[in-house]
Amino acid sequence: MLKIRNLCCLIMVVALIAVSFAGCADQPATPGATPTPTPAPAPGADPVQPAELEHRGISIGTLWPFTDPLQANPMRMLYLLSEQWMNETPGADIEFQLISTNYPQYVQQIRVLAASNSLPDVFQYQQGSSMIELLEHNFITDLDQLFTELGLMDEVNPVALNIIRVGDPYGRFMSIPMELAYHGLWVNTQILDELGLEYDESGTWDDLFELGVQIAAAGYVPIAINGRDGWNMTTFMHVYQMQTTGVGFLSDASWGRNNVRFTDQPFIDAAHMMRRFGEAGIFGPDFMAVDHQGHIDQLLQGQAVMAPMTTGFAGSLDNPELNTWGEGVFEFRMYPSVPGSILSANEQRGLKEMQTGMGFVVGARELDDSVRDWISFVFSRYGNFAWENAGFIPSFHVTSDVPAAYHRQMGLDMLDHVTDGELWFEAKLPGRGIDYAFRNISLVAAGHITPEEYMATIQDIVDEDLAG
Questions:
Q1: Which domains does the chain have, with CATH numbers?
Q2: pLDDT > 70 in the chain, percent
Q3: CA–CA dist 59, 53 (Å, integer)
């Protein structure tokens, strides 16, 4: 049986409980539990026979909703493949648990579940320092051995696997990548043509600013952005910083290497760029209240002209029920270059913030045969299934001969120009740093806190984490 459970309101104890992974490091699998001995058989009784492996239901924790057929995201693909597995597996039992749709709350609720030994068997989790904490405290498993045993290592795209490994100081395979994506600007060229304007990716960020001012004067939101959750705001800022310094500077600051700190000028300059754009109205008048779906709606409904998103958004644009503009209107464009960078304009345009989507991690408790069978079934089919039924680029090998749809092909074409990349801004920050970065970047853009205060607080959090 396939069951759906909404836990968004059930785990509200997160507001009352503060969980520290550090205090859980040496706990037994069930904190405070005492093993129950197996009673010996009575004298003269038949020996106790090993029980046949009892099927245990599989629990899958999610951040993204997955029941809407229009949302052809990785979570939806996993849900549909799970339906197939259940149809082919007698007695199969899966429960999908929608834990939260707000990522900072989701992270906190996962910590509550971890502390009570109630984690799902498999659950979505963003790559980064908080995932490393889960692994180091034995809440999730290193996937190298599992995927090797199941014969799945060769199914994973090596580029996607490398993105996972570079997010960990020890190069471990911590999460199952779901897509291969990189950031750029999706641009509504029809509105720009009507306004007599043009986005020039060979220009500079100053040119982008001036374009935004002109678009705002015409009554449109120049750049739709997720100000409430902060996801693509920090990405927008990170791209500017990465194009200024090249890759590696962010990792050095996050891990305390090479005397690089978040209070260094490249980070301050990137935050000042956010403030400049925000105070000029380039993110729109109410960007602080706009969530992820809201900024997508602004773009698709013609209220906004541009939006910073990944190539994965191609799936929505290739769906005529979501994109009523048709083909030839939205284009995926590179970011412009930063004046004064140590890199040339061409070198800057070859750099991309890369990601593998919201991946899945596997709980560290011993997996029964049904969970292993489900993992093997789903991920041996995932590449072709996602390619044929969604619009993103899967992170597993694709052998299907189905051609790429119009907007997905744009992302594939630009891959030829990608020379290097790194993970998103928060990827290697400690958990508190991730939460702070997301929650406060909109305050920087709105002028409520200074770029210097923002970056200094992040550095303080990193220093405290490195000090242990």
A1: 2-8+55-175+358-394 (3.40.190.10), 182-354+422-466 (3.40.190.10)
A2: 88
A3: 18
